[in-house]
Each structure stands twice: as C-alpha cells, then as structure tokens.
Design goal:
By secondary structure, the chain is α/β, with parallel strands linked by helices. It contains eight helices and 13 strands. The protein is 20% helix and 22% strand.
Amino acid sequence: MRRYGKNTDEDDIRQRPNRKGNRPRTNIRPKHEEAVAGMVLTVDRGRLTCLVEDRVVMAMKARELGRKAAVVGDRVAIVGDLSGEKDTLARIVRIEPRGSVLRRTADDDDPYERVVVANADQLAIVTALADPEPRPRLIDRCLVAAFDGGLTPLLVLTKSDLAPPDKFLELYGALDIPYVVTSREELQNDAAADLVREQLVGRITAFVGHSGVGKTTLVNALVPAEQRRTTGHVNAVTGRGRHTTTSALALPLAGSAGGWLVDTPGVRSFGLNHVDPSRVIHAFPDLVPGTEGCPRACSHDEPDCALDQWVADGHADPQRLYSLRRLLATRERREGD
C-alpha cells in the first residue's frame, strides 16, 4: 500500500529519528576555506605532527576524510588550534594532490599497498659495501619503486674502506644513477654528511636502507639537532642489523640552503605487487619510442617485444635494455631468492 501521495512535500512525512541526538547527516561537506596549509612531519597512532609556517602543530584527521590517510610529506589543510602549544589539537580537513608517492607492499603477494612518503623528489638508497654485504635484489626493488613513484634515485654507498665500490657500480652503470661513496671514517667525522648534503640541497629526499648500513648515523650527521638512536651492531650470523628507526620522520636539512630528508624505518623486504611495468619504462626515455611496436600489455620481456629490434637497430644501448628487464624481473622474484 502506498504510504504517501504524489506530493512528496507534505508536512506530515516522518523523518528517521537520529538516535545520537546530533545534527542529521548530510552529503554536503564543508569547504573549510579558512584552512591553513601545512606539511605532515610524522604520524604516530592517529596523531599527526605537522609544520604550519614556523610552528609544529599536533593534529588529527577529520572524519569527513573517511579512510583516506595522510602520510609523511603530505601537504594538508588544517583548521582549529594552530598555536602549537602543549595539549592543543588541530584538525586536518583536506589532503592536497600528491606530486609523487613512494609505495611498497609487505611482500609480492600482499594486495594492500602502503604509502611510505608523499611528495619526495628523490630516493636515497643507502647500502654498505661490506658488513653487511650489499643486497642488489633489494636495491633493484627500491629502484623500481622510485621509478614507479616519480622519484629520482640516489645511491649512497657506505663502508668503502671495507670493500671497493667499482664492481658494485658496474651493475648500475647503464642506469646512470648518481651516487656518493663514503667510508666508516667519513661517517664518524661528518665528512660523509658533506658529500651527501650536496645532493640533497633544495630537495625532499627519502632515505631507505636495510639495518646496519649506517643510514641513521648519516641522518644524525645531516640533522645534528635531531639525534636518532643508531644501531652499531650487525648480527654475525645473518649479516643484518637491528632496526632502530620505527617511524618515518621528515627533518629539515641543516644549513641555510634548504631541503628536507625523510628518515624511514629499515627495510628487510620491498614488495612490488602494486607496480605497473608500463610506468617503469618511463624511467628509460631512450627506450620508450621503441615500445610503440610492442603488443598490447607487453611485459617488455617476451619474444614479441619490439624493444629487441629497437636495440638491434642501434637506437639504444643493449645494456639499458638489460637493466630495464633486470629491474622488471624483480617483480617476479622475491628479494633474497
């Protein structure tokens, strides 16, 4: 039986009572035109530390953002108490579009991707040349994540006094990746920081690396005001150190030249389940024109791939194609296999 007539504007139409006694729900979201711009520095159990102008403000995410999460490096709009005083809490009401995203999955079978840092310009991959031994497969995976996310990679090689870098650098020569080589002595007297700082000025750089490679020691030298606990210990059996950085943190680079570095927790694996091979190829601009003849959804590592003929005709260096395929192959093999 029809409950109401054709006219739906009748005054006697009942509305569902609101059990909570608050305002009725609406799909219209406030614009928050008075919101102030800020940058997320770190995230800890639902509380976000943000930089607003020259003040550090504690904030939480507004309910209207739903499941959308803010991460370190995000540019956000904030309302509420922006004084930065103790026990005050502001509210993040908007997350601005991201210029770049560094993402990873727990492993290659995990469909849930995690955003590590947003809006970084550069990814500094810190690895020791010995003690612990370098792990090229993990480095390849970090490179794929950088290319996929729109970050420029930078290799930072430590402990060169224990092993020469030449053989290792040959592996990445065709990729033309900038690099810095340091020794343990340079790490201890801050000389390494001066070498690395030249590559960071005016940029937002995320630091990644597995435990024991000297990443935290280097970060402490680059940002003396923010000393993070270092590991100083590498397991003699596994060749791996103990994680000391437990959360990502954006830190201003010491000096007047400007720049930010984001220290991230040590990684033991870098899942690439989220990576689309079609995005990685764009990190090889000399090979991109050769893909025009590729079959649809080409993996660029199959018999019908047009890149083989493109390289055979002399349009690109064969080592470049080899490097591309080596990086793409890391998506099919677990790190450490």
